[in-house]
Design brief:
The chain contains 1 helix and 4 strands. By secondary structure, the protein is of the alpha+beta class.
Length: 105
């Protein structure tokens, strides 16, 4: 299930008839959750021009058959880019958890 979506800013509009391209990657797996980074592009099919329209980080929680949290298999970073995203995901998670704690009455 989707547990959270970080803020999403739209940089360019997407018009009817344009192609939407989404690219996602698992940035980091925690015990029962994972952060997935998503980038969205729009392509004008007449000109072939692509533009980055938005990016977001989504947190998903793994649920078992009775809706209980279940462990997720680890994903280990290999490339420099994967290692950068892996480290950044922990910082974002710590921030999200601190915000969640601060919002509790």
């Amino acid at each position: 299930m989707t547990a959270s979506v970080d803020s999403m800013t739209f940089l360019h509009p997407i018009h009817i008839g344009q192609l939407i391209i989404l690219k996602s990657a698992v940035n980091r797996v925690f015990r029962t959750s994972m952060e997935v980074g998503v980038k969205v592009w729009v392509e004008d099919l007449r000109t072939g021009v692509r533009r980055h329209t938005s990016s977001a980080y989504l947190t998903f929680v793994a649920l078992g058959p009775n809706n209980e949290r279940v462990p997720v298999a680890r994903v280990l970073p290999e490339t420099d880019d994967e290692k950068r995203r892996f480290d950044s995901a922990l910082q974002r998670r710590e921030y999200r958890l601190s915000q969640k704690k601060a919002e509790k009455p």
